[in-house]
Amino acid sequence: MKWKACKAALPVTIPIAAGFLFLGISYGFYMYSLGFSFVYPMCMSLFIFAGSMEFVTANLLLGTFDPLQAFILAIMVNARHIFYGISMLEKYKGTGFKKCYLIFGMCDESFSINCTITPLEGIDKGWFMFFVTLFNHIYWVIGATLGGLMGNLIQFNTEGIEFVMIALFVVIMIEQWQEANNHIPAMIGMICSVLGIVVFGTEGFMIPSMIAIVLYFTWNRNIDMRKDGE
Amino acid sequence: MTTTQEIIMILAVVLGTVFTRFFSFIVFPANKKPPAYVRYLGTVLPYAAMSLLVVYCLRAVPFSELHGVPELISIILIILIHSWKKSMLLSIVSGTVCYMALVQLVF
């Protein structure tokens, strides 16, 4: 059962392997350039496992010692996970002891795969989601560690490969769009985020946009996502 | 900062991140059925969250040097190829290769 789920999970994480190895190497390299040993990116990618926050943490480590500020900043930068959590309440239900790890490893990429892709009949959903999360975690740690170890050895033209992440998210959006019979939620997400950027700028729009999205759905609770006849 | 202080800082970030990930699951435990309102949010938020995530990834693009032209071309290509072949991997690879070619060779 585990083996089957593992084999089903591997191919769907391949695009993420490409993105995470590249981003991980860049992150490890970045920490190397700031003068940290590879142990730092290795441990931080393993325990924090939240890409953008790890870049921020690298900067925090160069500043003054203020753990409370680091804690609050981590909550603000990662506030979207609260949002993901509500979406995954049902999906992660009944996954037993794996649930703790599924929640711990709920990064953007694991979330988007686990919330969209349903494994084929006969494959255990819990183990499938577990392996998706685990593979992503492994790619990220390997990338970050390699980046920290190789330092200035990296000399090939990978410019633009980071687009693989955006490509993945766009494909998932298309899949969701085709599968849903109601496109209002996707459009509300789009409108609120673009408006958020216009009003609050590119770095501070996430939280106001999320609040706006929740408020909209609170105000208008009649959107039915079920297909007819189900 | 000493090594101990650095470790405490990293732990603070780990705690903050873990807090955001576990928050919803602790507030709405599995043995209790979450209120209808929250279950409703769970059905619509995944769609809104993906849009938010795409915008988040592209947030700086319109203000960049090329004003998002390579991004726009690559995303249109992904939409066309995905509607045509419906293969996730093919769509992602062609979109990324197109983007890399555009930023490295064309622009």
List the chains of the largest interface with their residue counts.
Answer: A-B, 93 and 69 residues
Binned, the helix content of chain A reads: over 70%
Q: In whole angstroms, how far apart are the ends of chain A? A: 29 Å
Number of helical segments with 4 or more residues of chain B: 4
Number of strands of chain B: 0
Shape of chain B: flat
Unreliable stretches of chain B: none
Percentage of residues in helical conformation of chain B: over 70%
User: What average pLDDT do the residues of chain A reach?
Assistant: 87
**For the residues shown, what is the average pLDDT of chain B?**
89
Query: Over all CA atoms, what is the radius of gyration of chain A?
Result: 19 Å
Can you describe what's shown?
- The complex is a heterodimer of chains A (230) and B (107).
- By secondary structure, chain A is an all-alpha fold.
- Chain A is 71% helix and 0% strand.
- Chain A is globular.
- The relative contact order of chain A is 0.15.
- With 107 residues, chain B is mainly α.
- Chain B is built from four helices and no strands.
- In chain B, helix 3 (69-85) runs antiparallel to helix 4 (88-106).
- The mean pLDDT of chain B is 89.
- The interface between A and B is large, with 93 and 69 residues.
